[in-house]
Specification:
The chain is α/β, with parallel strands linked by helices. It has one domain (23-354): TIM Barrel (Alpha-Beta Barrel), CATH 3.20.20. The chain is built from 14 helices and 12 strands. It has helices at residues 3-18, 24-32, 72-83, 117-126, 153-177, 199-213, 243-253, 271-277, 304-315, 335-354, 358-366, 370-379, 385-395, 403-414, and strands at 36-39, 91-95, 129-133, 181-185, 190-191, 222-227, 238-239, 256-260, 284-288, 290-292, 295-298, 322-326. The strands form 3 sheets. An 8-stranded parallel β-barrel has the order 1-2-3-4-6-8-9-12, surrounded by 4 helices. The chain has a two-stranded antiparallel ribbon with strand order 5-7. Strands 10-11 form a two-stranded antiparallel sheet. The longest helix is centred in the middle third of the chain and has 25 residues, at 153-177. The structure holds L-rhamnitol and zinc ion (ZN). Residues 186, 227, 260, 287, 327 line the site of zinc ion.
């Protein structure tokens, strides 16, 4: 599309929004400051470079679309491609299994910053920040479904050591990049069937988390976040780290809470949880995801759930207390495209929210004029949002509209299909 056409459309859109008291230039200025932390694991179906074996822990990447990244260089190239198609400056999130150990076997309790040196250099070259995740799955010591809540003291200690090692890696990221690295902890621990002792494993988990978080790290460099879940494959009846468990822990021990959009009952959305949780915890990490039936990790699209998350973040003034991370993996479509679809949708949801005439809506609400509130919410759905989005992409120097699809197709032909 011609540059001038996009500009023209923007100028008239700007007028339409201004009539409702919304400044589109200001909205784009705000949007430019928001970094979305893009997850590495969409690029290789959560395989990693440890070569330890199958993906486990009750999560699953289905599909066999050709061209997945098999090496760190391939993954970086693919991620770099995706990043080049996204407006704004973003972050990248690694899992511990994405280490580079030069062919040596390094067990999880031994992972160290040096194994992520190349990643740190790459991030510095791109001028982006890194975030981290400890990996408590896809490992023989997680095979029976228990890690930090294990009754076997040797296994439990092993995983505590892994958590501590990962926090050191996160701190090294933070020191190098000048912004704190958020390290997320998610464990698969749970049971397939009826469980008599629900209390024991939870008490063990508290103890393990306390030990793991005992070494103090300056929050300037590193923040700890903990993620609960409703159920997983093989942990349908009991998940030790449930939402209530981690909410309680985060409040009591001053940790960040991770809210994954796919980890609740299907009619529950995390949008409503933000203003509740943020009354009691300082900061949160989001795992923006899309649940579909049993799967909590479909590629994110601009649906009502996602829009509601953006709205709550903006309306509540929560952007400075929220780390926005993505969490989805789909092996049935082009993986670079999956990243771009999900991230662009997330950025769009934020722009939509920033373009909302919130002051006007609030006035209606406060004066009890719910008729106008509902009517206005319907009317703003057809405002020329697309013209602002296109203009934002253009000013950020990334493809406008569906033009990015051609770039991904070209990359598939030139690079992915040759793997
Ligand atoms: C699993 C959690 C977790 C993982 C990633 C790979 O249900 O959502 O965040 O998806 O750590
Ligand atoms: Zn998650």
């Amino acid at each position: 599309m011609a540059t001038a056409t996009i500009e023209q459309a923007y100028v008239s859109a700007k007028e339409r929004y201004a009539a409702l008291g919304v400044n589109t230039d200001e909205a784009m200025k705000q949007l430019r400051k928001i970094a979305v932390s893009i997850h590495c694991w969409q690029g290789d179906d959560v395989a990693g470079f440890e070569r330890a074996g199958e993906l486990s822990g009750g999560i699953m990447a289905t599909g066999n679309y050709p061209g997945r990244a098999h090496t760190p260089d391939e993954l970086r190239a693919d991620a770099g491609k995706a990043l080049s198609l996204l407006p704004g400056k973003h972050r990248f999130r690694l899992h511990a299994i994405y280490l580079q150990s030069g062919g040596r076997k390094v067990d999880r309790d031994q992972v160290a910053p040096e194994h992520f040196q190349r990643w740190m250099d790459w991030a510095a070259e791109l001028g982006i920040g890194l975030d981290f995740n400890s990996t408590f799955f896809s490992h023989p010591k997680a095979a029976d479904g228990f890690t930090l809540s294990h009754r076997d003291e040797g296994i439990r200690k092993f995983w505590v050591a892994h958590g501590i090692a990962c926090r050191k890696i996160g701190a090294a990221f933070g020191r190098r990049q000048g912004t704190p690295c958020v390290t997320n902890v998610w464990i698969p621990d749970g049971a397939k069937d009826l469980t008599i002792d629900r209390k024991g494993p939870r008490e063990i988990l508290v103890k393990s988390l306390d030990e793991m978080f005992a070494p103090a790290i300056d929050p300037k460099y590193h923040l700890d976040s903990i993620e609960g879940k409703l159920f997983g494959i093989g942990s349908e009846s009991y998940v030790i780290g449930s939402h209530e468990f981690y909410l309680g822990y985060a409040v009591a021990k001053k940790k960040l809470l991770t809210l994954d959009a796919g980890h609740f009952h299907p009619t529950e959305t995390i949008a409503d949880k933000l203003s509740a949780v943020l009354c009691f915890v300082d900061e949160i990490l989001l795992h923006v995801s899309r649940g579909v039936r049993w799967d909590s990790d479909h590629v994110v699209i601009l649906n009502d759930d996602l829009k509601a998350i953006g709205e709550e973040l903006v309306r509540g003034g929560y952007l400075s207390r929220t780390h926005i991370g993505l969490d989805f993996f789909d092996a049935s479509i082009n993986r670079v495209a999956a990243w771009v679809i999900g991230t662009r949708a997330t950025i769009k949801s934020l722009l939509l929210a920033l373009l909302e005439p919130t002051a006007k809506l609030r006035q209606f609400e406060l004066s009890g004029d719910y008729t106008s509130r509902l009517a206005m919410l319907e009317e703003i759905k057809t405002l020329p949002f697309g013209a602002v989005w296109d203009y934002y992409c253009q000013t950020e120097g990334v493809p406008v509209g569906p033009a990015w699809i051609d770039e991904v197709k070209r990359y598939e032909k030139d690079v992915l299909s040759k793997r």
